[in-house]
Write a structure and sequence with these properties.
This protein is elongated. Helix 4 packs across helix 5 and helix 6 packs antiparallel against helix 7. With 128 residues, it is an all-alpha fold.
Length: 128
């Protein structure tokens, strides 16, 4: 069943995953806090209602893949990461096997930034 914001309703009201520190809602909250963003601002950027996003963060609602995509874009994080946290994708499907692959796969880094990060990483390996 979907709600007005396009998210799937949850069984959390009947003892589901409220305040699950490892759930997608808690992960979104941590990412938002790291970005020093209010719930209201993230809701605005993700084009969802403030109360709905608050319920997602508290584990009262299970967001749809579309909502997760909007939130990931607003937080500038990988949508695949949120899909894994939400159980939409298996945990190992989008893992990279190396730091180099992770840097190369990051869509938010420019080529110059990727080269700089790789140079720093390789310098740590050489010195260590």
């Amino acid at each position: 069943m979907a709600d007005a914001d396009g998210g799937a309703t949850s069984d959390a009201q009947a003892g589901g995953d409220q305040d699950d520190p490892f759930g997608v809602g808690a992960f979104i909250r941590r990412q938002r806090e790291q970005a020093e963003m209010s719930v209201r601002r993230l809701a605005e950027l993700a084009d969802v209602s403030n109360p709905y996003l608050s319920q997602v963060e508290r584990g009262l609602r299970k967001p749809s893949a579309e909502i997760l995509q909007q939130v990931a874009h607003a937080l500038k994080i990988s949508v695949e990461t949120l899909y894994v946290k939400a159980g939409i994708l298996p945990d190992d499907e989008y893992r990279t096997s190396s730091v180099r692959e992770a840097i190369d796969a990051d869509e938010y880094l420019t080529d110059d930034q990727k080269r700089a990060l790789l140079n720093v990483y390789e310098s740590f390996l050489a010195s260590g």
